[in-house]
Amino acid sequence: MKSDIEIATSAQLQPITQIAKKLGIEEDDLELYGKYKAKLSNEFLKKTENNSEGKLILVTAINPTPAGEGKTTTTVGLGCAFGRMNKKAIIALREPSLGPCFGVKGGAAGGGYSQVVPMDELNLHFTGDFHAITSANNLLAAIIDNHIHQGNDLNIDTRQIIFKRCLDMNDRALRNTVVGLGNKSDGFVREEHFVITVATEVMAILCLSKDLDDLKERLGRIIVAYTVDGKPVTAGDLNAVGSMAALLKDAIKPNLVQTLEHTPVLVHGGPFANIAHGCNSVIATRAGLRLADYCITEAGFGADLGAEKFLDIKCPMAGLKPDAIVLVATIRALKYNGGVAKDDLKLPDIEALKKGISNLIRHIDNLKQYGVPLVVTLNRFDTDTDEEIDFVRDTVTDLNCEFALSEVFAKGGEGGLDLASKVIDVLENKPSNYRPLYDNTLSVEAKINTIAKRIYGASSVAYSSKARKELSRIKDMGFDGLPVCMAKTQYSLSDDPTKLGAPEGFELNVRDMYVSAGAGFVVALTGDIMTMPGLPKKPAAYSIDVDKDGHITGLF
């Protein structure tokens, strides 16, 4: 079989204007970025505000493993299958970050014959949204240091500057650094930190804003530092909002592209789910619901992270109500959770599967708490045996869930017809009684305990002295009513990446906390999770190249 990039670059794309017409979008409503990419104009988005909304389908997965689960591939394939069934569907995804593209994952546009194209452009720069977010973030950082250098009228405590610079790249050397070295005119010497762009509050704000006015209001609420008296200093106090918004005025518009089978796709925003809220923009999701009968979106990493944040942060904040959830699993990943080494996952091992399926069962039980109808799909590999498939099917059906095989990687939309049929049947016959996991009137501490015990399986939560201090400050500032965004390893339901399967009775360790007042949530950092990842020993960047004709190779 061809590689992902070989499949993508050999595909016959339709002009994006032709894709737009399927949704009733005229060329004048688009802002073209070449022949195959476009942004939806603000004027067009306003025209859709009174449109009736379609059904919202969330795609999530079990905890990721080195074997891969194919969540994005399944999302794309499901959208293509809807198209083959003559259903008016649209897909809403996040934009890939350069960090994982050059780090572990390579490309992030689906795989095989279920991809979003142009794949290489989507993975590398795309329409410049991440550059704009990085620039807006770092403009605010520069304004903070300039304010201090120019006399510090706001009386900022230089030991309590909490806003960080960013870069959309895995660069561990920038986690902890020093700025302002040199002459007096070079600024005030202080400790500084970088985060990856997708973990910034600016990214979260862009993805949770309903329009440009809401974006500006949220930017103004960003807490950047505290005064020597302990009072918060905001981006609004520093008069930074207008210039930041100017940098983001185009980035806030959703991007329209297509799948290999010409299904429309809105790709917009890209917060990570392990260190941020892991969902594409509210603007794109809303647009998708108003433009099609079915909007298929995904949330990052496993259901304990992306889906939990989609259901407990994004949906309540945006007034969204999902109609169905698709949970993706693979036999390889379940065997890995059962203790099989990565190199042996292709070999039949029913006993390991029986042990590792506890991870899938936990995610099923977790998602049922939200009252949304659930379909479990098995992303099939050619090494899966009938015995293994039957075991997973029987386990899922015994839990009163719908089950479907998916072969969208190898067959595109054709391989997702069974899944699409099950999803449509659920949408037509099983009403959604969506409800968030917790009430925001609970304290932040109570919300963390709820997530830790009811989603992760923890028996208790331990807070470091630093986290306790920040928790107290959050309460004192009046932010106790905000939802919680948990920063946790994606590889385990616990905060320890080595605990596979469905661990229980462990203690969840919260080492630090802070409020993202503009985004509208409190962040709790658990375990050893980093907001600036590092590159692996053999990063994907080693395999990426461009030939003399400008064709990129090595993305996968």
Question: What keywords describe this structure?
Answer:
single chain; 556 residues; alpha/beta; 12-stranded mixed β-sheet; 4-stranded mixed β-sheet; 20 helices; 25 strands
What is the strand and helix layout of this fold?
Blueprint: H1 4-9, H2 16-21, E1 30-32, E2 38-40, H3 42-47, E3 55-61, H4 71-84, E4 89-93, H5 98-102, E5 110-111, E6 114-117, H6 119-123, H7 129-149, E7 156-161, E8 165-167, E9 177-179, E10 190-192, E11 194-196, H8 201-208, H9 212-220, E12 223-227, E13 232-234, H10 241-248, E14 255-259, E15 264-267, H11 282-291, E16 294-298, H12 303-318, E17 324-329, H13 331-337, H14 350-356, H15 358-368, E18 374-379, H16 386-398, E19 402-406, H17 408-411, H18 417-429, H19 444-456, E20 460-463, H20 465-476, E21 484-487, E22 507-516, E23 521-526, E24 545-546, E25 552-553
Parallel strand pairs: 3-16, 3-17, 4-15, 4-16, 8-11, 17-18, 18-19, 20-22, 21-23
Antiparallel strand pairs: 1-2, 2-14, 5-6, 6-14, 7-12, 9-10, 12-13, 14-15, 22-23, 24-25
Helix pairs in contact: 7-8, 7-10, 9-10, 13-14
Q: What portion of residues belong to β-strands? A: 15-25%
How helix-rich are the residues, as a percent range? 25-40%
Shape: globular
Q: What is the number of helices?
A: 20
The stretches of 5 or more residues where confidence is low (pLDDT under 50) are: none
Please identify the oligomeric state. Answer: single chain
